[in-house]
Amino acid sequence: MTVEKDLFNTGKKEYVHVYYNGIEAEKEKITINNRFNKMDEELEKKKEKKIKKAEDVKSYEKYYRLGFDENGYFMNYQRKDNEIMKLINKAGYFAIVTSKKMSAEEALETYRDRDAVEKIFRMEKTYLGNDVFRVHSEEKLESKVFVSFIALIIRNEIYQSLKELYKTNRKEYTVPKVLKDYERLGVTKLADEKYHIRYRLTNKQKKILKALGATEEEYRKFVNEQMDMLVNN
Description:
Layout: E1 2-5, E2 14-20, H1 22-49, E3 64-68, E4 74-79, H2 81-89, E5 93-98, H3 104-127, H4 138-161, H5 163-168, H6 175-183, E6 187-189, E7 195-197, H7 203-211, H8 216-232
Antiparallel strand pairs: 1-2, 2-5, 3-4, 6-7
């Protein structure tokens, strides 16, 4: 659902898009339950010491009724079930705020696109080594950024193509593993002064080629064409 509201009293309307995720709700409920079990343990330890006063347990007041003896020492505690239930009832809900008027579906799709872009830049730093540029001129910086941008496009294309294979085996069909698998391929110059493909494709490599929209024959043809160009030049 979407609600129009002046959130910050600026006289301008913002659009609050509210969502509910049932799976995340269950995860959050488990987290909340573990949190209060831990708080129970902490309060029990404080109670056993018999020297804790109101200021020592003040942070627990929101969700616990705290009891003290005639000398002001912490003596007992009890959960405020109504307050805890309010917290549990919020589990699974999240909101996105936009200044532009749009539907809740559009806002979520836009947010996911932004999240994807952030992940791509994180990928650039992690896998392409662009957390440090190591260049000394603006021209070289522009060149490196351009090359890394092209590399990201290619990497993302590989990632998208591998999705179905990834579902069958999450360990073997990640992009880094697939690239490493293809690094083993190579060509060798033999006695006939021609370059030849060094190894036959494995079944795994054939599956990857198929996922990328190519056949083994097309792969061999491409390699041979490149080798011919190399020899002729």
